[in-house]
Amino acid sequence: MSDPEKLVTEIENLGGKLAEAKAAIATRIIGQEEVVNLSLAAMLSGGHALLMGLPGMGKTLLVDTLSTVMGLSGSRIQFTPDLMPADILGSEVLETGGDGARSFRFIEGPIFCQLLMADEINRASPRTQSALLQAMQEMEVTVAGVHHPLPRPFHVLATQNPIEQEGTYPLPEAQLDRFLVKIDVDYPDRATEKGILLATTGTEETVAHQVFDSNTLMAAQQVVRRMPVGDAVVEMILDLVRACRPEDAGAPAMVRDHVAWGPGPRAAQALMLTVRARALLDGRLAPSPEDVAAMARPVLSHRMALSFAARAEGIELDAVIDAVTAQATRTEAAA
To answer: What fold is seen in the domain 229-335?
Structure first.
């Protein structure tokens, strides 16, 4: 079997397994298909996700269910203002052996897992937030000058409350950029909320079953990276990201007038990976321009910011991204 044929077979087999995983997740997470798909896309791309939503929207249940279905060891950290870096990374303790000899022993913190839920990450101090930077980017932590590798795979799903900002520390741009996607968890519609009521207020609790394991997930991540991407999709990704930078000569007037700073090269890398993952989740062999348009908001919205004047005028960042995406789509269609 040639390499292209082998890749097609792997993609098809993986598509079936992902369909089973989504069905298992749906037994506990009612509705929220887009939230589930974006979370899975982030994990298939080997990245981290930032979940934005009010309390009680099922974010914790989602992470717990993903941990079970994907076969990953999970951990949860509630971020608070008094949380210290050692509380999440771990620390060294001085021990005295039976012979009287003293030595330091490293005790791992809760970050040593495969799927970490960082709950209300913006409530921790900047010092503690920054402790996650090395872990999210380099998959290791350094304590007392010693490097400690994290288990593989390693994913962070962090949550933020978009309304209650009193007593919080906004994440700096450098840390926001470490998140592959930002996922908005909105209120369910009436039919979905009725289903949630009926499913969660009875005597029986639905239990999800395991579909993946860590080795299978890492193999899937390699399949995503090997998935072919057409030239038209690559050019659309470049057009979209570059058009969101106010300094770029090709940026539309809306961006030059309203955007303070735009996305960097990591945004294009994130789009390249997530459009492949979205195609895979949809059972297709290659991504399309529609995938680029669908992933524009989740990938770009936390990597750019409006100017003060634009915020004062009531301009919304999502509207700017949608306008630039529509222009990039028209350009690709005309090519």
So the answer is: Helicase, Ruva Protein; domain 3 (1.10.8)
